[in-house]
Write a structure and sequence with these properties.
mainly beta; Agglutinin, subunit A; glycoprotein; 10% helix; 2 domains; 332 residues; five-stranded mixed beta sheet; kinase activity; 2 helices; Bulb-type_lectin_dom_sf; disulfide bond; four-stranded antiparallel beta sheet; S_locus_glycoprot_dom
Length: 332
């Protein structure tokens, strides 16, 4: 009996060690900024990645009136949720079951049936070392080799795939060698992060490169050419001392980005679902987003070029001769 008991104890000990080893190798993540190839994030686990400095947080979310789930990045310390990037905006999870993990050198988002709904979609090359995903202090979510944390080691980065928001250090514009264009696309509505009707993008086809707010294929507003300091077509309501702008036009790229020197201040350039472009700042201790500039400056101007859609707010009116104004005159 003693021999049987000893074998039983050894068996239990071995089983415990095996279970413990599995839990260590495949463990969920809670409030760190790096995801390794043996870790994962799930909706049910409520785990997140938090950037150094606690400015940004990455995790799963759903909007107020929706049961669909998204993977996104938001400001951690802004008391009302402000999203800056959404991975699967046009392919949400239909159930509250989802997993983010690294698989075959790619970040993949899996649904309840273990089917991929979003991926970094990289072609697997020579594997020089394990890869990890990391949420950086500036809000950039990157996948890189574990032994190279410099930008040259980035295999993929969210800054190359903006949604509706430009963060400090991000680039908007066109890369001449790769043909990649980075532009902003609005949400569909205030509660729907899927791709909306408006974009803010660079046009290099005519004269000096300019940014435009577009409604589908219609040019609504010009950002104006770069005057050496800023884009001349975007009136600045405030010119904060802590904000710097950078415009690059060379053989490789035509890009725009901005920086802020005050670490306690958050700033973002965003296009909302109405097609209005805002440069916003969160300045302690105001605890609110303050508009530094808008395009257009008059909200009603935003609707003149698409009155034909009959989506004009009641407080605005269409130009004489537009389809909507003719319909109004006919009582349509």
């Amino acid at each position: 009996m003693k021999g049987v008991r000893k074998n039983y104890d050894n068996c239990c000990t071995l089983s415990f060690l095996l279970v413990f080893l599995v839990l260590i190798l495949l463990r969920p993540v809670f409030s760190i900024n790096i995801l390794s190839s043996t870790e994962y994030l799930t909706i049910s686990g409520n785990g997140t990645l938090v950037s150094p400095g606690d400015v940004f947080e990455l995790g799963f979310f759903r909007t107020t009136s929706s049961s669909r789930w998204y993977l996104g990045i938001w400001y951690k310390k802004v008391y009302f949720r402000t999203y800056v990037w959404v991975a699967n905006r046009d392919n949400p999870l239909s159930r509250s079951i989802g997993t983010l993990r690294i698989s075959n050198m790619n970040l993949v988002l899996l649904d309840h049936s273990n089917k991929s709904v979003w991926s970094t979609n990289l072609t697997r090359g020579n594997v020089s070392s394990p890869v990890v995903a990391e949420l950086l202090p500036n809000g950039n979510f990157v996948m890189r080799y574990s032994n190279n944390d410099t930008p040259s080691g980035f295999l993929w980065q969210s800054f190359d795939f903006p949604t509706d928001t430009l963060l400090p250090g991000m680039k908007l514009g066109y890369h001449r060698k790769t043909g990649r264009s980075r532009f902003l696309t609005s949400w569909r509505s205030s509660d729907d992060p899927s791709s909306g009707y408006f974009t803010y993008e660079l046009d290099t086809r005519r004269g000096l490169p300019e940014f435009f707010v577009m409604y589908n294929d219609i040019e609504l507003y010009r950002g104006g050419p770069w005057n050496g300091i800023e884009f001349s077509g975007i009136p600045k309501q405030r010119k904060p001392y802590y904000m710097m702008y950078n415009y690059t036009d060379n053989g490789e790229e035509v890009t725009y980005k901005f920086f802020i020197s005050e670490q306690s201040t958050y700033s973002r350039l965003t296009i909302d679902f109405h097609g209005i472009l805002y440069q916003l700042a969160w300045i302690p201790p105001t605890s609110r987003w303050t508009a530094l500039s808008t395009l257009p400056t008059d909200f009603c101007d935003n609707h003149i070029n698409y009155c034909e859609s009959n989506r004009l707010p009641t407080s605005c009116s269409c130009l004489q001769g537009s389809i909507a104004s003719q319909n109004d005159q006919k009582g349509v």
